[in-house]
Design the sequence.
């Protein structure tokens, strides 16, 4: 009897790989199969095993998408083959991510599963735009809403007029396309035209783009800025506090795309430094480092190493590889004797 597989419904976070949980990374590294969405950063796949099966099932507005039932069939099929399956979903799987539907299907098919939460887009977009979702002086409540309900429902369940007089913060997922209707309903419910609004596209990434305005101005602001999807809409007095707490888009390399051509195993530190300064880093290694040496000749050199007067290194790779081999032959660097070193 073959070992039973398992499915892990994992929140891939808002985009920045650094915001993925430790548990999520552990499971990605161990997975036999990774089924991932459009909003799951492809860089997360770099953590996967080279032999892991990677299946893209992303959904984008206006484009052909794999139906939800087919995605669920893939999860069930791979798990029934005894495989460990990671299902990567942007943000958090249980916040407008259809994770509940997939978990229910797995339960019906008696497939073991685990839920791994992720940082949802509302929290991340607000933080990276400098917007405090709650504030003792301006907002004591936070409401998550979707602008894209199930099209098969007979009627919409969200009556935005009911939120027109809220004193809290509204976080609207997938709402850019429906924003004219939503604004009309909010105003019909009593929302003031000068209520602050912020829209953040591609939150947490170096291509993050944001636009700010009011209920009365935001549609024109969107048109002028060219902002699109995916984007988070935040409505409330807290948006006006952004000027005091904004930090992300002001970094010196924000909006720059930089290619790092170093060998992949050496690019990490430089890439991290550039990323921390706001750059979008693309690792494109043009070289690879491999050891090529004559074992017999190397043994002769190490056996008589004390007779040499100089050792000259022409690269960091030479230093690394030399001492890896040196410490296989000797326990102490003092075995180099009076040798002088140039690098």
Sequence:
């Amino acid at each position: 009897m073959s070992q039973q597989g398992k499915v892990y419904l994992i929140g891939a976070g808002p985009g920045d790989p650094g915001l993925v949980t430790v548990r999520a990374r552990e499971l990605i590294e161990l997975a036999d199969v990774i089924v991932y969405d459009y909003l799951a950063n492809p860089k997360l796949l770099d953590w996967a095993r080279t032999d892991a099966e990677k299946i893209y099932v992303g959904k984008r507005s206006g484009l052909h998408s794999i139906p939800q039932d087919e995605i669920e069939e893939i999860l069930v099929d791979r798990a029934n083959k005894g495989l460990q399956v990671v299902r990567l979903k942007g943000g958090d799987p249980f916040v407008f991510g259809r994770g509940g539907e997939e978990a229910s299907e797995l339960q019906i098919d008696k497939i073991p599963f685990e839920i791994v939460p992720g940082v949802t887009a509302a929290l991340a977009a607000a933080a990276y735009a400098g917007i405090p979702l709650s504030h003792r002086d301006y907002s004591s409540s936070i409401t998550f809403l979707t602008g894209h309900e199930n099209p098969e429902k007979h009627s919409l369940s969200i009556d935005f007029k009911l939120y027109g007089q809220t004193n809290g913060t509204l976080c609207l997922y997938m709402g850019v396309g429906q924003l004219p209707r939503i604004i009309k309903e909010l105003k019909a419910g009593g929302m003031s035209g000068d209520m602050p609004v912020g829209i953040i596209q591609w939150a947490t990434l170096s291509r993050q783009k944001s636009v700010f305005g009011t209920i009365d101005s935001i549609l024109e602001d969107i048109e002028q800025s060219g902002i699109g999807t995916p984007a988070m809409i935040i409505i409330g007095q807290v948006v006006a506090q952004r000027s005091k707490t904004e930090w992300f888009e002001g970094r010196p390399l924000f909006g720059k795309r930089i290619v790092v051509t170093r060998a992949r195993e050496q690019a990490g530190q430089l890439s991290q430094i550039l990323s921390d300064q706001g750059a979008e880093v693309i690792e494109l290694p043009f070289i690879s480092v491999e050891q090529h040496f004559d074992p017999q000749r190397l043994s002769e050199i190490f056996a008589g190493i004390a007779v040499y007067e100089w050792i000259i290194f022409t690269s960091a790779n030479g230093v690394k590889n030399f001492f890896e081999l040196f410490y296989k032959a000797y326990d102490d660097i003092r075995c180099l004797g009076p040798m002088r070193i140039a690098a």
Observations:
- The chain has four domains: 6-118, 122-245, 253-288, 295-342.
- The longest helix spans residues 316-329.
